[in-house]
Structure formats: structure tokens, C-alpha cells
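*Target chain*
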Amino acid sequence: MRLHTATSNPWRLLFLRISRQAGSLTSSFKWSSTGPLISPKNDSRKLAGIKDPTIVEVNGTYHVFASTAQASGYNLVYLSFTDFAKADAATFYYLDQTPIGAGYRAAPQVFFFAPQNLWYLIFQNGNAAYSTNKDISNPAGWSAPKNFFASTPTIIQSNLSGGYWVDMWVICDAVNCHLFSSDDNGRLYRSSTALASFPSGMGNTVIALSDKKNDLFEASCVYRTANDDRYLLLVEAIGSDGNRYFRSWTATSLSGTWTGLANTEANPFARSNNVAFSGTAWTKSISHGEMVRDQTDQTMTINPCKLRFLYQGLSPSATGTYNALPWKLGLITQTNSAC
């Protein structure tokens, strides 16, 4: 049998090149942050803050969906741009003017579900909801919301105890689609259905991870890493100083055991102590956000090479009720990539 060297086998050479480009996850992270990039518009909506971004890059255009926040409640907004430096000038398309409708909608996640050739927007509406669209750039094209569940799963309802069922996140492997969610009480839940059945049949809800309330609070997001088929879990925590930050874990399967990666205040995924700002830090919280993805399908695959994370931040001097706080969006970029 003839042995092929890397130079004599072009497919092997391509694999090695991709592997080198993909790099691997580091066990500790350092970041640099922009200032606020996206703020509420000074328009008739009179928003207090813009929050909970989800983002994909398609052919050089960034598509962002986010929560609009004000004392009276939440809804969703869409914007797109080709340059982060010009993001704040992007037109806001308020999705309560689409079939998504008015009322409580928050914490979106967007992805392309390849088996159906449809974009999905996942969000919370008191349940876990979804809307679909053939064209992500057409904000009017989103369908009326449908719920994944008839009601709050029993295991979640029994554990709320003053918490809230929040922040739904969908990721699929080759066989199943999984929906992760939080209860603001230290528990991360996972529900599932067959890939071929999605979005129907979501059930079998279990506790995927648990910790103290503030240490496993909300805003989970889960990704497949391109180089080694590991999964990366991020969950927002409330630090000992009262500010928000992200912890991280990895697993070899979406239904497997999560192992801590950078998951302490001293060694966080992203916190004020490992994020560098130019000048005075505009925020002490690195809160609800999303990886910038250019691989957009339901596998939520990221290249762990110089990660970028769009997040919500808040002026340290801001005061008031939570829904009326002036959250804005900024971008952190990893500065200690292994690539």
C-alpha cells in the first residue's frame, strides 16, 4: 500500500491547512474591547437600552437582532451593516411591525436551518418561540411566532422559585436538535428533538448543569468548535462585585458532561479583569451576547481562532430599574488566540 505524504495528497494538505487556521480553544482568555458600537436611536420609540444581541456574517454583511428595552417592556429589532465602525448608523427595523408582532419578545438567536433552507429566529415570549424567514435581509419576511412547548416544562416550572424561564438557545448535531434555557436560579436546562422533526417534538427536558444562583444565571450560548468537534458552553454570571461576566465549559457531546474551561472570576471567559479598554472602561459588565459567526447553520460552528463576541455593556454610573437601564452593544476581540 502506498503511503501518501502531506505534499503528495492535496486533500491531506488542505486538511492540515484548515487545521492550522482553525487553531484551538485556549484555557484562559484575554480580550480588547471597543467602546459602545450600537446604541438606542433617538426616535419616537424612546428606548432605554438595546440588549441581548445575536449576530451572523453573510457575504461581508453583519446581521444583528437584539432586544429593545424600556420600562414598559421588550420587543425585537433588526439591523445590518458591513463595517462595525458604522454600525451605530444602521437603520433599525422594529420587528413588532412584522408578523412577529407586538408584546413581549426578547433574547433572540438567529441561525440558518439547512435541512429546510430557512432562517430561524428563536426568542422568549413567556414560552420558547420561533419565527422563520427565507431571506435574513428582509425584516418583513418573518413568520408569526410559534411556541416550542404547550406550556413551561414541568421540571422548569418546579424549580423557578421566583426565577424566570429565559434565554432559549438552539443547537443541532447530526441526529438531534437541543434547546438550552435558564431559570435565573442556577440551573441550565436542555430539551431535545430529532433533527428530522425540528421544530416539532421538543421535550425530554433535563437539568444539564447546576450551580449557585449567581454563578449560573442566564444568557447561555453553545457552539461547536470547528477543529475538534468539542462544544463550548458560555453562561452569564453575576460576579462578587455585582457586575456581569461569562464563564465557560466544554463537552464532547451536547448531552454529555460539561467540564470547566475558564469558569472562575480569577480566570473567566470574559470579565472586566481580562478585557482591556482604550482609556477608561465604559462598562464593568460583559453581559448577554453572542459570538460573531460566519458559519451560520444549525450546528453553531465557530472557528476558535481570534474569537469576537458582541455583548451588552452598561455605564458604571447608570442607575434605575432593570428594564430602564441604558444598555449598549460593544465588541470584544480575543488577543491571546492560539492560532
